[in-house]
């Protein structure tokens, strides 16, 4: 069981973990391209025409991750702090979150469901994370949900899951004030 820290915890994208993911993907894809080259009558070691495609894909992946918003993430006793895609930060109190969980293993995504966007600091606009696009997961999403890619996050994904579960359970256990008093 992972020990949960009650203080501030930062989660950032690790450059080395991104490079490790690119290297592992290359180890899987390179043999497939070599087989395709042989199937089309080229020498398996000949870099054209598949070499430039692999090179562009290897460069595109880290650049795409850099332009996504959300990281670094800070978890404190009182709030969750996210980085906006355009820069700046937004803080959401734990009591204002209906859900904060990480889904997926190969391409993990942090899903934050905010009960009331007007109670964030600063007030979060409805479309701060929503972008129109075919490849974006913004389509079909609730306007209260924020989806963040947490690929190659450090300290690690398991720690993020444990911290979120611990803090969300702490909010659920707190007694809610009686509105009649």
Summarize it.
Helix content is 33%, strand content 23%.
Write the layout of secondary structure elements.
Elements: E1 9-13, H1 15-39, H2 50-67, E2 70-75, E3 79-83, E4 89-93, E5 97-103, E6 109-114, E7 145-149, E8 153-154, H3 157-173
Antiparallel strand pairs: 1-2, 1-8, 2-3, 3-4, 5-6, 6-7
Structure keywords:
alpha+beta, 3 helices, 23% strand, 181 residues
Which whole number gives the mean pLDDT? 79
What's the gyration radius in Å? 21 Å
Largest sheet: 5 strands, antiparallel
Helicity level: 25-40%
Q: What is the topology, as strand order, of the major beta sheet?
A: 4-3-2-1-8
Helix-strand pattern? EHHEEEEEEEH
Tally of helical segments: 3
Q: Measure the end-to-end span.
A: 41 Å
Number of separate strands: 8
Unreliable spans are: none
The global form is elongated
Walkthrough of the structure:
With 181 residues, the protein is an alpha+beta fold. 33% of the residues lie in helices and 23% in strands. It contains three helices and eight strands. The strands form two sheets. The chain has a five-stranded antiparallel beta sheet with strand order 4-3-2-1-8. A three-stranded antiparallel beta sheet has the order 5-6-7, with helices on one face. β2 and β3 form a beta hairpin. The longest helix has 25 residues. It is elongated, with a radius of gyration of 21 Å. The model has no long low-confidence stretch (mean pLDDT 79).
């Amino acid at each position: 069981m992972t020990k949960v820290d009650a203080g501030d915890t930062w989660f950032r994208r690790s450059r080395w973990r991104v490079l490790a993911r690119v290297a592992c993907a290359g180890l899987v894809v390179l043999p497939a391209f070599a087989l395709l080259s042989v199937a089309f009558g080229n020498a398996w070691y000949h870099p054209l025409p598949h070499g430039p495609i692999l090179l562009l894909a290897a460069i595109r992946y880290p650049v795409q991750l850099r332009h996504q918003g959300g990281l670094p993430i800070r978890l404190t006793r009182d709030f969750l702090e996210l980085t906006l895609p355009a820069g700046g930060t937004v803080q959401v109190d734990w009591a204002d979150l209906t859900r904060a969980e990480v889904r997926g293993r190969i391409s993990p995504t942090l899903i934050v469901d905010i009960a009331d966007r007007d109670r964030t600091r600063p007030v979060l606009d409805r479309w701060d994370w929503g972008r129109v696009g075919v490849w974006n997961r913004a389509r079909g999403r609730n306007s209260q949900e924020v989806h963040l890619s947490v690929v190659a996050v450090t300290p690690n994904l398991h720690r993020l899951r444990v911290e979120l579960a611990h803090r969300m359970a702490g909010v659920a256990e707190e007694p809610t004030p009686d509105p009649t008093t």
